[in-house]
Amino acid sequence: MSRRSDPRPELFDKITSLAKRRGFVFPSSEIYGGAGATWDFGPLGVELKNNVKRSWWRAMTQLRDDVVGIDGAILMHPRVWEASGHVENFVDPLIECGSCRKRYRIDELPDGDALMVRWRAGALDSSGMPCPSCNEKRLSQPRKFNLMFKTFVGPVEDSASVAWLRPETAQSIYVDFENVQQSMRRKLPFGIAQIGKAFRNEITPGNFIFRSREFEQMEMQYFCHPSQAGALFDQWKGVRKAWHRALGTPEEWLRFRDHAMDERAHYAAAATDIEFRFPFGWKELEGIHNRTDYDLKRHAECSGKNIEYFDDERKEHYVPNVVETSVGADRATFAVLCAAYDEEPDKEGTRVVLRFTPELAPYKVAILPLSKKPELSGLAGEVWAKVRPHVMSTYDETQAIGRRYRRQDEIGTPLCVTVDFDSLTDRQVTIRERDSMAQVRIPIDELVPTLKAKLRG
Ligand code: ATP
């Protein structure tokens, strides 16, 4: 019955079309023909993505005694990006076909990983390689392309006023390390979490919201003594995978991919991706890195400020090491959509169901009067008013009830409440469950606690 463990390529088209049709995600500036890999989250998409972010924030800050949050500015001092290495090194190798003009990142070409190794060693010659699109052997030599968006602060556009739209949120966590540690009187080890926008001028964005130019990251930097970083890296791998599982993602749709030595940044002692089985293959969903003391040391060097920590238990001064976990909110939302999508045969053909957990579902409850008759609308409106303050809910009175159930299934609403003509006299309503389609009738007075109990599972 279920197709959840079978992510076939057609799932991509089904999800992108459902996302647009049902108000999850639209191309940004669509009436102008789109704006180059930027996306708008519609009324249901913003609920879903907010729920993903809320779940991450709760797991990473509220439920832990060792992580606090910040919300840093997107525009930072330009030297931040020199210190971090982004001005010099945040580049993708770009190759362009002289014949069909198609552009590629080297890692997207056939045997891309091996080509990247050669490029990093300065030993890649692309002449003689065929273009994967037109097969002509007219590929340019790779050229470095910086992915940061440049802008100017103030009215004058000169080199002194350059600013960058941040390509990751992590840097404000490093730069704020001492402010957070001191204001919150934290002892190591502890972490700082942040959710925020990041911008990358990707050469080849695509695959829907998987890779866009403007996206949100959910990043956490965990500061510790150098001797603890290895074990903490392993611990965080487990913690982060468990979070993806708790969102309802099946175990067999997730895997770790450890980075080889020649793939990692020079300062990283260890790096792994949590990969997800997207409809277009296994791809990175989250990165986990042991970044050593590189970031804080670089900011200390470039700002001239001493960022050492004094550990009064060890009686030792040291620059903390960092274990980072970094996941895209948009990419995680896409993964959740893929994992939730399900189809099953029914008497009308196919029932499409988004099997979101109640925590993630955009609407938890839909109130559906059996018909549009005014006497039912009155009571149904009353029922909705009772439910609204407690859970995110919606109301639908158009078309046959069966079609309305299907519509709610397709957007993942776990529970429907039907108000019928008997409700007018017996003050009872029917709750219908999305997954089992089982129905129970209960008094309106017990509705809110019953819904809450069902949503808790
Ligand atoms: P990729 O190899 O897919 O480009 P990356 O290794 O550059 O990713 P990181 O710099 O580690 O990615 O960023 C951390 C996370 O941010 C990624 O795991 C991903 O979830 C998200 N992310 C990165 N780039 C994008 C993008 N262009 N669009 C959407 N999400 C992104």
Walk me through this protein's architecture.
The chain has 14 helices and 23 strands. With 457 residues, the protein is an alpha+beta fold. The strands form 7 sheets. A 7-stranded mixed β-sheet has the order 3-9-10-16-13-12-11. It has a 5-stranded mixed β-sheet with strand order 20-19-21-22-23, with helices on both faces. β12 and β13 form a beta hairpin. The radius of gyration is 26 Å and the shape is globular. The two termini are 23 Å apart. The model has no long low-confidence stretch (mean pLDDT 94). The protein binds adenosine-5'-triphosphate. Adenosine-5'-triphosphate is lined by residues 168, 200, 202, 211-212, 215, 217, 284-287, 326-328, 330-331.
Keywords:
about 450 residues; alpha+beta; BirA Bifunctional Protein, domain 2; Rossmann fold; seven-stranded mixed sheet; 23 strands; binds adenosine-5'-triphosphate
Low-confidence stretches: none
Global structural class: alpha+beta
What value does the Rg take, in angstroms?
26 Å
Kindly report the CATH topology of the largest domain: BirA Bifunctional Protein, domain 2
Main pleated-sheet profile = 7 strands, mixed
Tertiary shape: globular
Query: Which hetero compounds are present in the coordinates?
Result: adenosine-5'-triphosphate
Number of domains: 3
The CATH architecture of the largest domain can be named as 2-Layer Sandwich
